[in-house]
């Protein structure tokens, strides 16, 4: 009898605890309210990013809550590899490693429904810009929001919350004709300190299932950075940004002129593929679907000796990083160094993209995105192309 009574009491206490505990969605909203209500004039913190290209630490100075921003923060960040300035409407990225610079003026306007989720993407992500987007996530009826196992970061106990967003929820109607069976979800993991409720980390993954983690550390609140030279308004190296129009090749189009550097093979151009059935995979290191496409293309490379396979990376012109990535993901076919001009020649602006060319150098098949039947479809198209005389 005592044992039964004890179990009943424990059950009642557990139910009471569960009833009083906040849901994952409520935690997102509570965090948002606390940050948006901050009176801090300037904040300093570090963002440690762990990505396939290596670990990068950004020292960030931020001015939260200015009235002229979409994402709720103006900031400048400096690392060994790049310098980033967001002045409220324009994003300046000057990469020392990337050796390119550009100015985007709300580039996300291309995707009107994406605007509420701007802080989840790229350099705009920060503990303060996330505050604007979390209530929208909590209110999204298509989102799956769950509590995950707690963790410890910088000796702080942290609560982890998983969020799965449907692709349509983020982008609206797709601008591209993706395969009907392409995975259409984006997954994020938000990590909050139990001590102060601040966002300490986030990780993002799409259909590849692997996380690129970003940890936020060393906050200093309510300390004016009056002596700091802010670079928001007129960055001297910035150039006007002009949107590039991409026209993807259509079936029957000839392979365009292009060149790319390949590790150990010098420069490769169109002439290397003349008279050969050729499959070109366009990919980027930060794209989960691109990573998922690697084993598919590896199998095609092994299965069809008569097929020439070539990978064209689009996002990193440093051979060191491409070589590291190729080794990590066991890419067995030749890979061309990051080359935006080459991708532009083919009209590719989405990854992964598969392009299959015949012996005559003309396009036989093209697909953007990776779906469950992609490999089967590619096999059918490759076999038809190889059989051509």
How would you briefly describe this protein structure?
This protein is α+β, with helices and mostly antiparallel strands. The chain has helices at residues 2-20, 24-36, 130-139, 167-171, 288-303, 319-328, 340-346, 374-387, and strands spanning 43-51, 54-64, 73-78, 82-86, 90-95, 100-105, 144-153, 156-166, 185-193, 199-205, 212-220, 259-262, 266-269, 278-283, 308-313, 335-336, 353-357, 363-368.
Notes on the structure:
The chain has 389 residues and is an alpha+beta fold. The chain has two domains: 22-220, outer membrane lipoprotein receptor (LolB), chain A; 259-387, Glutaredoxin (3-Layer(aba) Sandwich). The chain has eight helices and 18 strands. The chain has helices at 2-20, 24-36, 130-139, 167-171, 288-303, 319-328, 340-346, 374-387, and strands spanning 43-51, 54-64, 73-78, 82-86, 90-95, 100-105, 144-153, 156-166, 185-193, 199-205, 212-220, 259-262, 266-269, 278-283, 308-313, 335-336, 353-357, 363-368. The strands form three sheets. Strands 6-5-4-3-2-1-11-10-9-8-7 form an eleven-stranded antiparallel sheet. Strands 16-15-14-17-18 form a five-stranded mixed sheet, with helices on one face. Helix 2 (24-36) packs antiparallel against helix 3 (130-139). The longest helix has 19 residues, at 2-20. 30% of the residues are buried.
Describe the protein's topology:
Layout: H1 2-20, H2 24-36, E1 43-51, E2 54-64, E3 73-78, E4 82-86, E5 90-95, E6 100-105, H3 130-139, E7 144-153, E8 156-166, H4 167-171, E9 185-193, E10 199-205, E11 212-220, E12 259-262, E13 266-269, E14 278-283, H5 288-303, E15 308-313, H6 319-328, E16 335-336, H7 340-346, E17 353-357, E18 363-368, H8 374-387
Parallel strand pairs: 14-15, 15-16
Antiparallel strand pairs: 1-2, 1-11, 2-3, 3-4, 4-5, 5-6, 7-8, 8-9, 9-10, 10-11, 12-13, 14-17, 17-18
